Amino acid sequence: MPAATLRPPCSVLLLAGGRGQRMGGRDKGLVEWNGRPLIAWLHDQVRGLTDDLIISCNRNREQYAAYADHCVDDGEADFPGPLAGIRAGLRIARHAQVLVLPCDAPLIDAALIDSLLEKASERPVMLRQGEYWEPLFCVIPTALAASLESAWQSGERSPQRWLRPFSPVAVDCPQGDPRLANLNTPELLTQVNKSQQ
Fold first, then answer.
1. How many domains does the chain have?
2. Is the Cβ–Cβ distance between 101 and 12 less than 8 Å?
3. Domain that holds residue 47
4. Beta bridge partners of 72
5. How many Cβ atoms are within 10 Å of 94's Cβ, its own excluded?
6. With the C-alpha atoms ordered 99, 104, 181, 44, is the resulting torsion angle positive or negative?
7. How far, in Å, CA of 119 to CA of 107, rounded?
8. pTM for this prediction
9. What does pLDDT average to over the chain?
10. DSSP-derived pairing of the beta strands 125-129 and 70-72
11. In this structure, are strands 53-56 and 70-72 parallel, antiparallel, or unpaired?
């Protein structure tokens, strides 16, 4: 029996609500890579982990609905960033822990996700490459939703600045770990395609 099935259930939040500036304004999660939308690759990795799969999206909700149990939008104008998506997801998450992943990281694998989930506790868990934290690859207790709301109302917009005071548990990855590659430009999508052929 896989170890993941022995853990308490978690919610999963896939962040797909950005403006897509580096993609020329295209909705990043729906951009195709290796013949499928980026969001489909993330869906494949996490679908078996949860009965509460949430996608934060600010447009094309009907298309994202095929990959989620729930779709949420930021409830804010002008694409205020990933913390807005995290805020929206924490509000509706059904389980005590929320695995958060960005939609443009299709190379993340089950082992790395498992490393995050196995450390889930009352503190956030976050990936770290060397000295650099990766706040969009994390597990957040839903008990922190009220803290996030307070920080948001005070003007905070940075996931890392919000999470760091909670002394997050680190999951360390090598510098340049390809599993964390953000395919957020047309050039990167093409390069990674070529490197895999």
1. 1
2. yes
3. 7-196
4. 56
5. 15
6. positive
7. 21
8. 0.87
9. 87
10. unpaired
11. parallel
Contact by Cβ (8 Å): 53, 43? yes
Cα angle for residues 141, 147, 152 (degrees, 5° grid): 120
CB 10 within 8 A of CB 120: yes
Model confidence at 67: pLDDT above 50: yes
pLDDT digits (tens, 9 = 90+) for 96-153: 999 999 999 999 999 999 999 999 999 999 999 988 999 999 999 999 999 999 999 9
In a domain, 73, yes or no: yes
Residues 6+ apart with CB under 8 A from 61: 71, 73
Does 26 fall in a domain?
yes
Joined tokens for residue 20: 């897509």
DSSP for 136-192, written as a single string = EEEEEEGGGHHHHHHHHHTT---HHHHHGGG-PEEEEE-TT-GGG----SHHHHHHH
